[in-house]
Amino acid sequence: MVARKKVLYASVFSVASFAAAAAIATTFNGYAINAFADPIANLTLPLIILAIGIQIINEKYGPLLIALVSALLYTIAFLPFLSASLLVVGIIVEIVTRKIGYRSLSSVVTYTTIAGTGEGILSTYLAYFMVKVPVPMPGIADWVIFSVIMAIESAVMGVVSFKVGNYLIKSGVIKEEKSKAQESKVNRR
What we know:
By secondary structure, the protein is mostly helical. It has helices at 3-28, 37-41, 45-57, 62-76, 80-100, 105-130, 140-170, 180-188. 77% of the residues lie in helices and 0% in strands.
């Protein structure tokens, strides 16, 4: 995929995810309920959109590019704790996807679970120090319980992401680019 197209896809999916997260955060106001309520709510549609973006780009540096654009958006919105967590998780997902791939069900579920759980936990933890969240710091039992909830929720979102991404690619909504090696195999037949 051409670098310009990769940046375009990363930007489109990052902005869409950011808009979905903003809509959820402003309508839900989860921090008023519990420190973990807002991250759990944001591990739905925003996470699905980012995972579909990774599937569409389907190349190395795709997850990192999505993380960079997303972190830039959250920095502009004065949410540095989310920017920091997105960058850390983006680097981890970039490393993981190079080993397991981008589009299979197992790889999408794996990197979506890592991204969702890691970002949810890290952003919640950093929010206590950077934003002075007006609720008490949760105990260790709360961290464990909500980590398990985030992991399960992220895995489910991975399955949804795989199905939607697979549909978009197979139906032709998103055109899949073939590498020159793939084209030469097709032309020889």
